[in-house]
Design brief:
This protein is mainly beta. The protein has six helices and 34 strands.
Length: about 500
């Protein structure tokens, strides 16, 4: 009966969570209490690329030990003893947005870059690891534009820092006004008394113009390539959405076209056409085609559009595709469309300098919107584009990175990506883990010192050792280690190791 009630409660909670954006903190065992979470230390970085922008959002999740979650029927607040909690963030993004990266901080200096895996495999690994009390996070798309991010563990004295990155198209109006919508669903969960750092970049033909009212902020740094603002978080509470305005110097051109050559066989383009240029288009039509100029032997082999095969009056037509060959910049791009029995042509020259960095991801995203099969999953895994078949999973023993910047977007045939440092798994070992009573620390090189710190930051043990010490033995009862999570900070001659252990 208890197991049945647990299943009913879990299903009801998941249904309720799916109806709105929320940050809930839940125990992984032993209790049904739901606690509130808070987001703070928020930084948003926006980088234009073609007809889209990369939005990179870094923030820290805290357990709210003051305010009750409205679904907490037990009416109790979390305490420092609740050290096996899980954070669950549910939120929405614009329908055309897609995620391309996720990071999890294990501590102040150790960052794990999430791997993209098949969805079922990622969830099985995440669930098994939570049961073993080891750090993971998982980011996945639930349906349509609804997403979830889960992080384990978290407690009142152990907040978790993460970074998630996604791509989103510009919203476009007349006269070159282009807008990027900020992730309001997440920002509404930030601490109202705190601030958000917003870093906005320029590109050669698309430049940041201003914050859109009612959004206000103070400039704390500005140079030729970017502007950094400080924004008060209390703005997020009272308004439904927030935008940044960009100015596009080429807005009045009939075609906006970007291209990218990834490899000899992997070439991509991103096309945007304003049908306001087509004054004779008074209703939606499906009789049209776009001719992309390629040199001899080249051909477009896959293309997708957001208009479901229609040319719609007074709107934007967006298309991305993949091709083999070389662009021919001496020939124009052409749109041919048929109204009644008459065929019309619109043409324009291409600009060779209109290149993009992540057009292949736009294409992979659109491919996922039109196709669901094994190839879709493989493309998602290859190009690090999240879809319904995959998930971003960050593991404690996964790929550590020195920075969340400059990492290659593609798996690169399974080889180590730039910026990623191979985890040193063999140099130090602590066993057994979880600790029951006695445990050992063994190192391949001499240990200079060791400190043990509990999850609240309290120093449990500190000692320096004689030269040549490679093995240490401890009794957890003599150290007065209670059940919970501990950090072992081990100093060697040229390196410092931080290892997490669980005392049962």
């Amino acid at each position: 009966m208890k197991k049945f009630l647990t299943l009913v409660f879990s299903a009801t909670f998941i249904f309720l969570q799916a109806q709105f954006s929320d940050l809930a903190i839940l125990p992984t065992q032993g209790s049904w209490a739901i606690h509130k979470g808070i987001i703070d230390n928020t930084e948003i970085e926006i980088i234009p690329d073609g007809h889209r922008a990369q939005v990179e959002l870094t923030f820290t999740v805290y357990v709210d030990s003051v305010n009750l979650h409205f679904n907490n029927y037990r009416r109790n607040l979390p305490t420092y003893k609740d050290n096996l909690l899980e954070a669950r963030l549910n939120f929405k993004l614009a329908p055309e947005a897609f995620f391309y990266d996720s990071y999890l901080w294990l501590n102040a200096t150790t960052i794990i870059r999430a791997k993209i895996l098949p969805r079922g495999e990622a969830n099985r690994v995440y669930d098994s690891i939570v049961n073993r009390k080891i750090d993971p996070s998982i980011l996945q798309k639930n349906w349509d534009n609804q997403y979830s991010l889960k992080i384990f563990p978290i407690s009142t004295v152990f907040p978790r820092k993460v970074k998630i990155a996604y791509s989103i198209p510009f919203k476009v109006e007349d006269n070159g006004r282009e807008f990027i919508e900020l992730p309001t669903d997440i920002l509404k969960l930030t601490s109202a008394s705190s601030t958000t750092s917003l870093i906005v970049h320029h590109k050669s033909n698309v430049k940041f113009k201003h914050l859109v009212f009612p959004l206000t902020g103070s400039i704390i740094n500005e140079n030729s390539t970017s502007v950094t603002f400080r924004l008060q978080n209390n703005q997020w509470v009272t308004n439904p959405s927030f935008y940044l305005e960009y100015f596009n110097e080429n807005a009045k051109e009939p075609f906006s076209f970007y291209h990218q050559k990834l490899t000899a066989d992997e070439c991509f383009y991103d096309l945007r056409l304003s049908t306001k240029q087509l004054t004779n288009l008074t209703k939606s039509i499906s009789s049209f085609g776009v001719k992309i100029p390629l040199r001899t032997g080249g051909f477009v082999y896959q293309n997708y559009n957001t208009s479901k095969g229609l040319l719609i009056p007074n709107s934007l037509y967006n298309e991305c595709g993949s091709f083999v060959g070389e662009m021919d910049f001496e020939k124009p791009i052409e749109l041919k469309y048929k109204i009644g029995s008459t065929i019309f042509t619109l043409s324009d020259t291409l600009k060779s300098n209109r290149t993009g960095e992540f057009l292949y991801q736009n294409w992979a995203h659109m491919f996922s919107q039109n196709v669901t099969n094994d190839e879709t999953k493989e493309i998602s895994l290859k190009y690090r584009v999240l879809n319904n078949q995959t998930a971003f999973l960050a593991l404690e023993d996964g790929d550590t990175v020195t920075s969340t910047k400059g990492n290659d977007m593609i798996s690169n045939g399974g080889r180590v990506r730039s910026g990623i440092v191979s985890a040193d798994k063999e140099a130090i070992s602590v066993y057994p883990n979880p600790i029951i009573k006695d445990f050992k620390v063994e190192s391949e090189t001499p240990i200079i010192s060791l400190r043990i710190i509990d999850i609240s930051g309290r120093l449990v043990y500190s000692q320096e050792f004689e030269k040549g010490t490679k093995t240490l033995e401890f009794n957890s009862e003599e150290l007065k280690m209670k059940s919970g999570i501990y950090w072992l900070i081990i100093e060697e001659k040229s390196k410092m190791h931080t290892i997490k252990v669980l005392k049962e």
